[in-house]
Amino acid sequence: MKLKDKIAIVTGAAQGIGEAVARRFIAEGAWVAIADLNLKEASATAETLTAVGPGKAMAVAMNVTDEAQVNQGVAQVAAVWGGVDILVSNAGIQIVHRIEEFPFNEWKRLLSIHLDGAFLTTKAVLPHMYKKGGGAVIYMGSVHSKEASPLKSAYVTAKHGLLGLARVVAKEGAAHGVRANVICPGFVRTPLVDKQIPEQAKELCISEDDVVKKIMLGETVDGEFTTVEEVAEVALLFAGLEANALTGQAMVLSHGWYMK
Ligand SMILES: NC(=O)c1ccc[n+]([C@@H]2O[C@H](COP(=O)([O-])OP(=O)(O)OC[C@H]3O[C@@H](n4cnc5c(N)ncnc54)[C@H](O)[C@@H]3O)[C@@H](O)[C@H]2O)c1
């Protein structure tokens, strides 16, 4: 088992990509805190994943934009399980508008969840990792960490920002054995994407089928969505390879949508 008895915190893990990452880590023996805004869903996910094992899960109520909640949640995990080895900063939302119509409060809300969330969780876990002499910090970026799309100014800005944060964590953390990397998936069929399909169809005046085939998958090599399992496999690689050889990197998995 690649993560036997490793202690991980995955934010936004009640569903979607975060849940799949937690499931993969637990299959490799990790103990995973399912940190999410939605405690009811997080508890249900933790119960399901613990039943599968061989690792285990606990649910932690956490709004990643709230410093006190982040600090309390991380302290709870460290106290109950004895430290933190892996952070997957994954919680995120999508809001689409043209720039000239983008409400400022929605811009700030999106940036706060992606960037304040990544910063606050990183700040809270690093002392625990430094104490143990190592750790892995993994940010859920996107092809939109590298590419732009219309309507997604806030999301593209936030996802580009995560690359910068990861590189600083890689530099500051190296002396303590802490690596930081970014996963950059293409479109993955989760509730976050399902919500965008009708929104984009309306905004761009095209059919929902065209949003999927032309906008989301049009640039891929095979017209396929990236899957949550594929993203989880890359998270496992970043979590399990305990070497500074692999730090400060951003890995794109997008069925060839982005190639550089
Ligand atoms: N789905 C995709 O196509 C795709 C592609 C690239 C990157 N991503 C990124 O992957 C991550 C997960 O996306 P997903 O598709 O699984 O989304 P999702 O909507 O299925 O799940 C997001 C989870 O985050 C939680 N969350 C939202 N705000 C939170 C907050 N303030 N504090 C704590 N938890 C919060 C939600 O409760 C939910 O459980 C996001 O960062 C997203 O930007 C998604």
Summarize the structure.
This protein is of the alpha/beta class and 260 residues long.
Polypeptide structure, described:
This protein has eight helices and seven strands. It is of the alpha/beta class and 260 residues long. It folds into two domains: 7-186 and 227-253, Rossmann fold, CATH 3.40.50.720; 189-225, no CATH class. The chain has a seven-stranded parallel sheet with strand order 3-2-1-4-5-6-7, with helices on both faces. Helix 1 (16-27) packs across helix 8 (228-240), helix 4 packs parallel to helix 5 and helix 6 (191-204) crosses helix 7 (208-216). Nicotinamide-adenine-dinucleotide binds at residues 11-12, 14-18, 36-38, 62-65, 90-93, 113, 140, 142, 185, 187-188, 190-193.
Topology readout:
Layout: E1 7-11, H1 16-27, E2 31-36, H2 39-52, E3 56-61, H3 67-81, E4 86-89, H4 104-132, E5 135-140, H5 153-173, E6 178-185, H6 191-204, H7 208-216, H8 228-240, E7 250-253
Parallel strand pairs: 1-2, 1-4, 2-3, 4-5, 5-6, 6-7
The structure holds nicotinamide-adenine-dinucleotide.
**Cα end-to-end separation:** 33 Å
What portion of residues belong to β-strands? Answer: 15-25%
CATH topology of the largest domain: Rossmann fold
Helix/strand order:
EHEHEHEHEHEHHHE
Label the structural class: alpha/beta
Q: Return the average pLDDT rounded to an integer.
A: 97
Major sheet size, sense and barrel closure: 7 strands, parallel
Global morphology:
globular
The count of domains is 2
The spatial strand order of the largest sheet comes to 3-2-1-4-5-6-7
Annotated CATH architecture of the largest domain: 3-Layer(aba) Sandwich
Q: Return Rg in Å.
A: 18 Å
Helical content (DSSP H or I, runs of 4+): 40-55%
Instruction: Supply the number of helical segments.
Output: 8
